[in-house]
Backbone:
């Protein structure tokens, strides 16, 4: 935006109705804090400057805002004496030569707000010559909002707050969204004139409307179609409703981009997730953080992926994954747990009941069943047998296991790290591999099978185990007796 625009974001209020040790505007929805959503809408305007008013828990809120908007001006409001007071604190935080142009005031707890709506308000305001322009909404239940009071000519005469409204004023269903655009010179003159002679004893920013009319200036009202955009979340129930609405909006956007979402009711996608066209999402999927899914991949059902990159045409079924990379055409799940640092190569497989962590698994390598793979490097085309444990932890430190290309390790192996199995090597079932295996070798660690005859009869006499053993050996003796009579069925 080329005009001189200052945006003031109010975030000093306590948010006591959240009943939370986390400050209201820091509560996350769709992968961002509430104020993060507001600041992102504000950033899309490319305003000249952003001022944020902080108060309650400012030691958390301030740095959070600074991380998102590094050149923000932070203004401190020590006690929350009202929105008019908060804006005065913001105004005083700016040097006099920056108190110019158009000033937009928004609240930090309206996560559905979109940049386009702010832009439309600013455009309506800039051309109008009005001292103040209000973003208004028409709502079925105006309870709690400031009502827009119009004069006989239809001009905006005042905003009257819930507690100060007469019963007639309370009927009005045109409300102030709390988002206002000001002419800087007017705001500068009006702020010191706002009083606190009202039922809350607060300095109301909305009093500027009345002050503008007194000064012979006009006030504009710009009605927003989608009034949800300006709804604030005051408690957890409202937060959940807004989260659902925001999610619906995100899903609509992806479906328009060619993503198939089978069940929007059980699909949750964070705002920063990126999906290619022809991705299919089955029911019960959460795609979180900076997850990126490439074309033709099929995710779900019942999977949660956070900061996971999924390659073209990969298949992910009933999986929980974090900070992992799944290669093109790879197969994951069902019931797989991919922990940070998992990298599965193209056409590789991580199968049922497999947990992986910090594991680079090469192209076409497979870990199909019931295994823990931690701190590992598995070469391309290798196959890990069912029930394998990569014993990476000696109780003090973590160590790495390397399995070479095209190695075949058998079922129920333990790799005691650090250990290296060479390219093309094989291990026997039940092996505990403690020493490096040369390339191409077969490593076997379990001893030859030995039988201690009639052990059960001798060591477990009188038990069902011993009885079963006795009757089995009697059966064998009988079978041997009859077999001496010649083949069954012959001569009988
Ligand atoms: C405000 C408006 C009301 C509007 C409604 C829309 C006023 C007087 N009323 O009412 O017309 O319909 O928003 O949601 O402006 N804040 C501070 N410091 C303070 C007080 C508030 O930073 O001293 C911040 C809050 O954290 C919040 C925002 O300002 O982000 C709005 O304050 P809130 O108390 O929610 O005002 P409402 O009573 O909802
Ligand atoms: Mg409010």
Residues:
């Amino acid at each position: 935006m080329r005009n001189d625009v200052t945006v003031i974001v109010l975030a000093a209020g306590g948010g006591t109705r959240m009943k939370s040790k986390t400050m209201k505007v820091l509560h996350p929805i769709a992968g961002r804090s509430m104020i993060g959503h507001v600041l992102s809408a504000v950033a899309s305007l490319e305003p000249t400057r952003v001022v944020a008013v902080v108060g309650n828990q400012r030691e958390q809120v301030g740095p959070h805002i600074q991380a998102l908007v590094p050149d923000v001006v932070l203004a401190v409001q020590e006690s929350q004496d009202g929105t008019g007071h908060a804006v005065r604190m913001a105004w005083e935080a700016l040097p006099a030569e920056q108190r110019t142009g158009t000033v937009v005031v928004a609240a930090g707890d309206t996560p559905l707000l979109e940049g386009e709506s702010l832009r439309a308000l600013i455009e309506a305001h800039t051309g109008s010559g009005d001292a103040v322009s209000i973003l208004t909404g028409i709502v079925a239940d105006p309870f709690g909002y400031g009502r827009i009071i119009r004069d006989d000519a239809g001009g905006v005469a005042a905003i009257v707050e819930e507690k100060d409204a007469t019963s007639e004023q309370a009927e009005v269903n045109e409300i102030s969204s709390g988002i206002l655009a000001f002419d800087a010179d007017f705001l500068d003159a009006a702020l010191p004139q706002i009083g606190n002679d009202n039922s809350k004893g607060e300095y109301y920013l909305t009093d500027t409307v009345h002050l503008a009319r007194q000064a012979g200036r006009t006030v504009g009202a710009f009605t927003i179609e989608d009034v949800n955009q300006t709804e604030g979340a005051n408690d957890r129930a409202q937060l959940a409703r807004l989260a659902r609405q925001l999610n619906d909006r995100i899903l609509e956007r992806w479906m328009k981009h060619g993503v198939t979402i089978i069940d929007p009711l059980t699909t949750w996608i964070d705002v920063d997730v990126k999906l290619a066209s022809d991705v299919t999402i089955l029911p019960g999927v959460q795609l979180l953080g900076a997850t990126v899914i490439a074309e033709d991949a099929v995710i779900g059902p019942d999977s949660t992926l956070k900061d996971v990159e999924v390659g073209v045409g990969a298949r992910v079924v009933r999986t929980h994954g974090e900070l992992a990379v799944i290669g093109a055409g790879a197969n994951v799940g069902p019931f797989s747990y991919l922990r940070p640092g998992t990298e599965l190569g193209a056409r590789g497989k991580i199968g049922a009941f497999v947990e992986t962590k910090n594991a680079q698994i090469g192209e076409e390598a497979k870990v199909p069943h019931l295994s823990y793979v931690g701190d590992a490097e598995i070469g391309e085309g290798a196959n890990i047998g069912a029930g394998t444990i990569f014993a990476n932890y000696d109780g003090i430190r973590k160590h790495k296991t390397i399995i070479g290309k095209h190695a075949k390790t058998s079922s129920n192996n333990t790799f005691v790290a650090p250990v290296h199995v060479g390219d093309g090597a094989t291990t026997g079932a039940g092996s505990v591999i403690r020493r490096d295996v040369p390339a191409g070798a077969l490593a076997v660690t379990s001893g030859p099978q030995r039988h201690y005859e009639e052990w059960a009869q001798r060591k477990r006499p009188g038990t069902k185990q011993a009885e079963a053993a006795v009757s089995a050996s009697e059966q064998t003796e009988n079978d041997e007796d009859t077999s001496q009579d010649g083949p069954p069925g012959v001569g009988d």
